[in-house]
Structure formats: C-alpha cells, structure tokens
Write a structure and sequence with these properties.
Elements (H helix, E strand, L loop, with lengths): L18 H11 L2 H14 L3 E3 L20 H8 L30 H10 L5 H12 L11 H8 L3 H12 L11 H12 L4 H9 L1 H5 L3 H8 L3 H12 L7 H4 L11 E6 L2 E6 L7 E3 L1 H7 L6 H38 L1 H6 L9 H8 L3 H8 L3 E4 L2 E4 L7 E3 L5 E3 H13 L9 H10 L6 H10 L5 H4 L3
Parallel strand pairs: 2-5
Antiparallel strand pairs: 1-4, 2-3, 5-6, 7-8
Length: about 450
C-alpha cells in the first residue's frame, strides 16, 4: 500500500472567536462595578470615548447667589444633626460647664474606646503604662492576645501588679473585653450584669459543648436542678456576646447595592428598565470627530484616530448589545415568574437556563453571563437575577413549586410547631406530603439547614 500527500478543499461550519465577539462576551459577563472599572480603563486609553449626556442638555454654569448674614444658631443646629443648637442642653452660652449627654459618638476603634476610659479612670502613671500595654495587645474581637507572664517579662514588673491592672481593663466597656478565653469572656459579662451565680459559673466552665448540643438533661443531673431551670440559665448565656469587640471592628463604610434593572408593574403588565449603571451610554468626542475631517493633521495622527474610532465603535456596540440582551432575558424571567411578583414566594416556579435560552433564542452560556452578578429591583424587593433560576418539584396536583417555595413552607411549619414537641425532619416531610409535595427526609434536612434552623432536638423547650 503506497502512502502519499495530497491537497483538498472542503466546507465546514466553524465558530471563530473574533476580538469583537470576545469583548462582547466579556462586557456581558461583567457586574456593574467591574464594567465601570473596565470603561474607566478604556477611556484612559481611548481619548475618543466619553459618557453621553442622557438628558440631552449641556451642563450650565451654576448661578452665583447673593450672600446673606450668617445665622450661627442655624449653622450649629445643622452641623449637629438638625436637633441641637445653641439653646440646647449640650451647649449653653451662659454656663461654663458642658453636658455630654446626647452627643453623637463618632466612629472609633476599640483601642481608642478603651484608651478614652483609661484617660478618665485616674490611675497612677505607672499603672497607666501597664494598662496601655494591655490595651494595645487586645485584638479586634476584644480578647487579650498575650499572657500575664509575657506582660510581666516585657515590662519587667511582677505578675501581681499585672493582675491588678488587668482587672481594671476588664472592668471597661464593652463587658467581656480583655478576656483570655471564651469562658472568661462570658463570666465577665455575667459578672457585669450582676447575675453570676455558682450554677452559671459551672455551666460556663464545664458545659459549653452541652449547651450547643442541647444536652440540658445532662447538665440538670450534674447540677441537681430541673431541666427547665437549666434551660433558662442557658438562654441567658446565649444572650451574651462571644466577641465583645466586634461592634468596634465594623468602621468601614457600608456598601450600598444598586440594582442593574428595574421591574415595574405598569397597568397590568411588568415593564423592564435597564439602569445606566448596567449599560452606560457612551459616545464619540466631537472634538476628535472634527479633527478626523480636518486636512491639517498628518497621516500618523489620522491613522491613530481611525484605529481609536474603530475601537470606540466596537465598545459602544458591545455595551448596547449588553443592554438589549439583559433586557430581553429579564423580560422573559419577569413574564415566567409573574405569579411570584404578584403573590409572593410560594408561587415561584422552577426555572432553568435552558428554558430562558430557548425563549430568547440564545445559548445557555449567554443567559448565564447575562445574569451573573446582576440584581433586579422588583415590587417584592431587590433580588439577584440568579434567585429566579431555581429547581423544584411537581406536586401531586400537577403544580410546579420551586425550592424557595418549599423552604418557605418548611419555615412556616416550624414557626407554628409546638415548642415542647418540635417537628422532626420526617414529620416535616409527612406534612409536606399532605400538601402534595413529595420530597425525602434528607431533602427536608438540607433545606432546613440552608434556612439556618437547628434540628428538632435543639429546638425543643422544656
């Protein structure tokens, strides 16, 4: 058999991932924050790009207003939150003393909060130096990260003096600060409330794991008291804060969620509006457009502007495609989940990417990119678009019910249960079966855990 080479031609269909298509897919998948950062980078590279004026009006120069005499009373009232002025108890002109009640506390760290209490404690300078060293070794959760031996060695002082100053720091607010363990933290909080008893101390020191496992009978036998009394003490312990420094650690600004699309009910239909943060309007700078038609610029400048103009048009087209794709998909979702928008979570239907892709005549991956990291404002609240895509079951009556609806039913059943005889997962499965929803006990347990609800043995009251 003789082998050889030959040339031939054949036709075949192949999808070529062009730079334009790659950019379009990338823009579609970005969240609003990522898109904003990407556009900022592109506008730094491409001087022809700029944001369009959606209102169609130029920014006018602000009109200068006349100056009037300053009303200082009103000024101090406004800067103090609108509720306090020179006539308020906080500040009085005719008195030399100040009232600090009602002053709004500014954000401060745990270290600053403890140092402020140390400054007004009036301790001698030597003990102040020890207390400052202790405070500087308290972490954000409020726990002391060094031992008394370490403090004694670092400051070259005896442990007795360290213990005395540590007790002073542990008496500061918030209760439980300066503790070296969870048990000590809880005991300090009980002591500050004036409710610490020998029974509570025994439970904290020896039975924290039993509290978590709801083994109240074991604790009652060891303490020689009733289970109901043990449960009351455990309920008190559960009200304590295991991380007393936590309120001072959240000094970062709060991030606000801005929805990408709005679903509004107009008459009897739901309209979808894509917000500007999801698909910003871009345009070409008019100055550079005029430069392109000018014969005074050289070939190098013209070549650069032409290449930047083509890049700008590609990006503008990708943004518009993003807007249209997101709008089309959200319209399909809103139409499919109309019962949820009208009646609530129990009426949400199971929905898959394939169902939406077939109706939108796009690929499933396109739907996945379009809903990734995006949120919708609806009459029921703000939801991530992925929330509307959920699997579910078909009831015996033929009605489809999503897992969100099943979870709501489980939550309702548990909220109405007898706390003395809470419903087990098997009982919950039987109750759902009575409503025509046939799911296994393991599925019920999974949904219950996703709701953050403990098992029946831990929900039982005595």
């Amino acid at each position: 058999m003789e082998l050889g080479f030959e040339l031939g031609a054949r036709q075949e269909q192949k999808l070529a991932i062009t730079p334009e298509l790659r950019q379009s897919l990338m823009v579609l998948q970005y969240s609003s924050q990522e898109l904003s950062e990407y556009l900022q980078q592109e506008m730094e590279i491409n001087p022809l790009l700029e944001y369009a004026d959606v209102n169609g009006m130029k920014q006018e120069k602000p009109v200068e207003t006349e100056t009037y005499p300053m009303d200082w009373k009103e000024y101090f009232r406004s800067v103090s939150g609108g509720n306090r002025g020179l006539d308020d108890p906080v500040y009085r002109e005719d008195e030399n003393d100040y009232s600090y009640e009602g002053l709004q506390e500014s954000d401060r760290t745990l270290f600053e909060h403890l140092m402020l209490q140390l400054d007004i404690s009036g301790v001698p300078e030597f003990e102040r130096r020890i207390a400052q060293y202790i405070i500087s070794n308290i972490d954000d959760n409020g726990y002391l990260t060094v031992t008394k031996h370490d403090i004694s060695a670092a400051l070259n002082i005896d442990k007795v003096r360290v213990s005395q100053v540590l007790k002073l720091v542990q008496s500061f607010d918030p209760p439980g600060v300066g503790a070296r363990s969870l048990r000590e933290c809880l005991l300090l909080q009980l002591k500050s409330r004036g409710v610490l008893t020998q029974s509570l101390k025994t439970i904290v020191l020896e039975h924290l794991r039993d509290i978590a496992d709801n083994h109240y009978g074991l604790i009652a036998r060891k303490l020689g008291c009733s289970i109901a009394e043990v449960q009351r003490m455990c309920d008190l312990i559960k009200t304590l804060d295991p991380k007393p420094g936590r309120p001072f650690a959240g000094t970062n600004p709060i991030g606000y969620l801005i929805p990408d699309v709005e679903i509004e009910k107009v008459d009897d239909e739901y309209a979808v509006n894509v917000r500007e943060n999801c698909a910003p309007r871009l345009t070409i700078n008019k100055v550079y457009q005029e430069m392109l038609g000018s014969p005074k610029i050289g070939e190098d400048v013209t070549s650069f502007l032409v290449s930047r103009l083509q890049s700008a048009h590609r990006l503008i087209k990708a943004i518009e495609q993003r807007r249209e794709t997101v709008r089309k998909i959200v319209e399909i979702v809103a139409d499919y989940q109309r019962d949820f928008l009208d009646k609530g979570i129990l009426h949400m239907k199971p929905l898959t990417l394939k169902t939406v892709a077939e109706r939108a005549m796009v690929h499933e991956s396109t739907v996945s990119r379009a809903i990734s990291g995006k949120y919708a404002q609806t009459p029921r609240g703000i939801f991530e678009l992925k929330f509307f895509f959920d699997h579910g079951v078909v009831s015996t009556s033929g009605k489809s019910l999503s897992s969100h609806g099943i979870k709501q039913l489980i939550n309702d059943l548990i909220s109405r249960e007898d706390v003395l005889k809470p419903l087990s997962d098997s009982a919950l499965a039987d109750a759902l079966a009575g409503k025509g929803i046939d799911i296994s006990r393991r599925t019920v347990a999974k949904y219950r855990e996703e709701l953050g609800i403990p098992c029946s043995s831990k929900r039982k009251r005595f």
